[in-house]
Every structure is written in structure tokens, then in C-alpha cells.
Amino acid sequence: MAINVLLADDHPIVREGLRMILKAQKDIIVTGEASDGREAITLSGERPCDVVIMDIAMPGLNGIEATRAICRNLPKVKVIILSMHDTSEHVYRAFQAGASGYLLKGVAGAEVVMAIRTVMKGNRYLGKGIKDPSHPDLAQAQVKSPLGRLSPREMEVLQLVVEGKTGSEIAKMLSLAETTPDVYRCRIMKKLGISNAASLVKFAIQHGITSLE
Fold first, then answer.
1. What is the dihedral of CA 5, 132, 90, 173, to 10 degrees?
2. Which CATH superfamily is domain 3-140 in?
3. Model pTM score
């Protein structure tokens, strides 16, 4: 039986490269492509999907929060993170969100294929240089991470704020009351100990919450 794969990355050239690699495999079918986290969530529910290859730093909704939503709503779907981020914090957050595998960008296409087949067998796949989720360093990274202070909804609002969305736009996108995004923004800044917009943007980029550069 063929493995249905969804590609989620905001760079078309990355998706094209992955699609060509996977197209050469007789047992793998690329059923869709998403350029941001929200689109990945939507397509994973609308099209045949067994595995999502997910980038982390994407606009609108980052890959870790998209992974969390997909794994919560579609528990049979496996998510493999394919990212340039290799910090303990990113790896811990990815597996905590429900990812089944983690690879660094730049790996050979054969390893991506191997990862897909591995997670489809119910096993976890760790690319070269990626520590096991049970490693003490990863747990320690989460303890130290300020992101642990934020709820999933606050993470969503934070990303949209730093990407320049207005309070009205955020309210519409997340189905919130008109004034609620501003309440969230103030709460987020207080939790993070950040007092201005520039520092908030810098924080979001450093922690891979947004692809904004």
C-alpha cells in the first residue's frame, strides 16, 4: 500500500526537491504541498495523508504548533520535522508536540525516505546529530526555555503579532473578540519579560517561532 505524504515548507525549491526525491519511490505518493502551518493542518485533514514532512520556521503558524494540532486532531498521521534548527529546545518542543521524527535540512534524500518508512512502522526516527527525546539535555532545555510559559494559543498570537498582523486581523484569523489579541499580547510580553516590539520580534526569530527575517 502506498504511503501518502504531505510536504510543508515555505520555500518552493525545498518542496520541489523533496517531491522529486519521493516521486522516484514506488511506494510513496506526494498528495499535497503546504507553504505554512495552517495550510498544512487543513490539507492533512482534506487529503489522504499518512506522513507530513514539516519545516519549523514558517509564516502564519510555525511547524511545531502545526505538528501539535495535526497530532491532536489526526493521531494516525505521522509528522517528521525537517529543519535547519538543531538546538535541544527545538528538538524537545517538536517531540513534545507529537513529532515522530526529526531530520536536519541538508541530509541525503535517501535518509528522508528511510525516515518515512521508519515512522510508518511505528518507530521514531532521529537524524544524525539529533538527541533522543529522553536525553537529559532535552528535558533541561525545556526547563530553561521561556516558551514553556506560553500556552498554545499565546504561541499563535505571538507569531501573528511579530509578523505584523493587526489586532483586528488576528481576531478574525483566530475567531476571537476584537480586543482579545491585545490582551494576549500584553500577557505574552509580561510572561517573557519583554517590554518592546523590537525585542519581541528578535525573540520570536531566535526561537524559531517565525520565518520572518
1. 40
2. Response regulator (3.40.50.2300)
3. 0.86
